[in-house]
Amino acid sequence: MRTFGKSSKLDNVLYDVRGPVVDEAARMEEDGMEILKLNIGNPYPFGFSAPQEVILDMLSNVRTSQGYSDSKGIFSARKAIMQYAQLRGIPGVTINDIYTGNGVSELINLCMQALLDNGDEILIPAPDYPLWTATATLAGGNVVHYICDEQSDWYPDIEDIKSKITPRTKAIVIINPNNPTGAVYPKEILEQIADIAREHELIIFSDEIYDRLVMDGYKHTSIASLAPDVFCVTFSGLSKSHMIAGFRIGWMILSGAKNKAKGYIEGINMLSSMRLCSNVPAQSIVQTALGGYQSVNEYIQPGGRVYEQRDFIYKALNDIPGISAVKPRAAFYIFPKIDTEKFNIFNDEQFALDFLHDKQVLIVPGKGFNWHQPDHFRIVYLPDIRQLDKAMKKMKEFFATYKQR
């Protein structure tokens, strides 16, 4: 009998944000159990809503958004994104350098497919947002992970980056602000990465989807603003800053040495045209969302939900014997470290499953972010403090007796 298996191209691909532990949580829910989910950065289910003006704009534009748009996006959206790039200090950006996408995820996939031949190398951080490693691998690329250093606030290890460049290296990815660590990279680190890209003639891919969710007076800098002579692709969108993950609207901005990337840009244009266009109703809200009052600022100031929940989870985790965490400065995530000797942990996925079965709380193990030691996990701190308190009490109880077998 003929059977059909998955493609071998998927052998080294993972996306554990929705992976085996999540599948087990779904099975438990089917059996009637209530699961507290700390696994995915999806604001709406936790009581965050889009600004009313954005919702009204979407509704008023639905009737006129029934047809395809230009493959790069509608004029008003791309014009607003171009002006946003100017405010971020990214030089030389025209409206033709702007592409909208069904979230940043689609554009990352498109960029990897357009660039990588079999065996080409691309530098991606560890830990990473796993979509980067997955899409680069599916495109035939060889992903080389450089280390972000927990002892240095999770900043990229510059010497590690330098040591991993070969003649086959085509590009370097940075995720700033970072998911899963919440780190915000200082200008000095970004300048060093730009210098490396300049010296080795690499493309810089900068994932900046959390650039409007920065706390504690930290300043976010777009690396493209520091590298006008390096070809850069900068990604951002509205899913997180405007709490509309389901609307699927992101963008990418091409800047710098575009003359060195003419063939690559042709490939991007071809793939962009093949998917026809991104979600047109969602594009219609970009101009309104990027202009005027930014309600997200209410969440990231003292007294705001994101700020207070971040402070709560940071303190609660560090109060658990055997757990430590670096304070995140942006986004919705914290990436705590486990004392693996204390708990005899040698398999972080098994730890996450044991915690799920015992306490009905869903987290993502560190391996889901291409972190190759079993000593970390990610928590999403979008639930309100009452729910986070419940989860942390369960975690403290769990670790009081846990030994992995």
How would you characterize the overall build of this protein?
Belongs to the class-I pyridoxal-phosphate-dependent aminotransferase family. Its cofactor is pyridoxal 5'-phosphate. Residues 35-393 form the Aminotransferase class I/classII large domain. A hairpin with a 5-residue loop joins strand 4 (142-149) and strand 5 (155-156). 45% of the residues are buried. The model has no long low-confidence stretch (mean pLDDT 92). This protein has helices at residues 20-30, 52-61, 75-87, 103-115, 130-138, 158-163, 187-200, 262-274, 280-283, 286-290, 296-299, 305-318, 340-343, 348-359, 385-401; strands at residues 36-37, 98-101, 121-126, 142-149, 155-156, 169-175, 203-207, 232-237, 250-255, 323-324, 333-334, 337-338, 361-362, 364-365, 377-380. The radius of gyration is 21 Å and the shape is globular. Helix 1 packs parallel to helix 14 and helix 12 runs parallel beside helix 15. Helix content is 37%, strand content 15%.
User: Which oligomeric form is depicted?
Assistant: single chain
Shape: globular
Low-confidence stretches: none
Strand content: 5-15%
Head-to-tail CA distance between termini:
39 Å
How large, in whole angstroms, is the Cα Rg? 21 Å
Across the major sheet, the strand order is: 2-9-8-7-6-3-4-5
Mean pLDDT: 92
Secondary structure: number of strands: 15
Counted by DSSP, the helix tally is: 15
Largest sheet: 8 strands, mixed
Question: What is the helix content?
Answer: 25-40%
Helix/strand-derived category reads: alpha/beta
Instruction: Give the SSE string.
Output: HEHHEHEHEEHEHEEEHHHHHEEEHHEEEH
